[in-house]
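Hello,

Our lab assistant flagged a job as stuck in the queue for most of the afternoon. It eventually completed. Since we weren't sure the result was trustworthy after the delay, we are filing this so someone can double-check. Below is the sequence as submitted and the structure that was eventually returned. Let us know if re-running is recommended.
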Amino acid sequence: MAVHEDLAPTAADPPVVPHRLATGALGLPGVIFCIVTGAAPMTAMLFNVPVAVQGAGYGAPAAFLLATAALTIFSVGYIAMSRRVTSAGGFYTFVTRGLGRIPGVGSGVLIALCYMLFSASVIGVMGYFAATSIESWTGVRIPVWVYMFAALAVMTALAWFHIELTTRILGVSLVLEVLALVILSVGVFVHGGAHGLSAKPMNPAEVFGNDSAAHVFGTAAAGVALFAAFWSWVGFEMAPNYAEESRDPHRIAKTATYGSVIGLGVLYMIVSYAFVSGWGLPESARAVKDQFSGRYDSAFYPLAETFVGHWLMVLMQVLAIVSPFACAMAFYNTGARYLFSLAREGVAPAPLARTSRHHSPAAASMTCTVLVGLIVLGFSLYDGSTEGALLKLGTWAPLMGVLGILGVQALTSFAIIRYFLTTARDGFHWFTTLVAPVIGAAAMVGACCLLIENRAVLAGNGEVPFIKYLPEVILLMFAVGLGIALWLRARRPEQYARLGHFDHADPVDSPADGRTARGEPSPAA
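-- returned structure --
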């Protein structure tokens, strides 16, 4: 990986500071675009609403309500800590500062791998919608893997450039996605849905043991519905990851995180409510089953054509390709920044901390390309069908990723509590840094338990090793990080002592311990 050949600055370029991302590159709109497009409203709705309906029937909107409440409460403590700690390490840095270096490295390795799983899975969703839509428009059938690897190649190319270029692409996609979903929802509401509008879908009790889901799919699975709901928000916590590249990290982190969690929650509840109301409460589960059997490319398309017009259906078909691509690119960027942060502190190989002349984490991005490509290749060899890209790669991979990220979020909640009880006593607040993190942790642990209990539903209740051993694989990924930290503590104690303590506010070449960001002695030391 000859990344270093492109790292030498030219006379026209500003000098490149090793291991430092582009400072001041992003304002509040740019960070929000990165976060919200990472959540991918169009992709979340086209893919996750049907999965939520599979688990909770017409109670799917209430699953999004529960997830909104849980993540908003979690965000209270998360934002409090992000105002004290600004680094591209995100969860890794927070857990390290609060619970110690060993669980911190375990979390960092796990979350980096989870984001690569997310990127690969959304590439699968994009491949499915690209293959089905282009075939319906042109009659040309191209293997789904061609679309998936083409998308990965474009992401790799964009990763070399300044982060601002990425945010422009993400921003255009985001605006079109939200407009299309709002227009669809308004169309359904104006016509009163299929059989009128009811408050039942917003009742949290309907998430558990919903009759319509049990009647159509043979079982109701609240864990599946909550998996789909929480999966729709993956990436909301990315504001601290972009701290080094934002102009005012303390203010931006708070506004961007609350704005994305609550804003997305309201949008998701409205659109999922429009979906079940447009089909009719009992019929919505049947429509999802018809989609899974191949009758529709998406159960949203007939609603768009019926309640608004053919033009909206075509627009949604186009956005169903663009949105997953933008989403996968956002996940790819976050995964690269976790690898960059881990490499900068010696957890991952040092060359991964190299940045390009555009100040992007170039080496880490190329590594992401290889790992994401291997995940896509593995699932393609397992099931190379178009449907497999959606129902295998697009469903099973994020199942593992969501379980991992929920676990890390629970650890982060405990880290926040301990951090403010010990290191940052002056910032302690009984609700912000104690009660809210406790409630947040309880919600994450509960969601993990339901997901583990109901995971077989997504495999058709069959014996699929990938699904069956999901918890063990997550624990193994976490254990790899623990092993790396223990090795560093035994063999490289000075490097171990600096883990999780690179901060955006620290000078690059003269941190407090007298060493550079690479762990080398500073000239002033």
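-- support follow-up --
The delay was a queue issue, not a problem with the job. The result is valid. The mean pLDDT is 83. The two ends are 33 Å apart (CA to CA).
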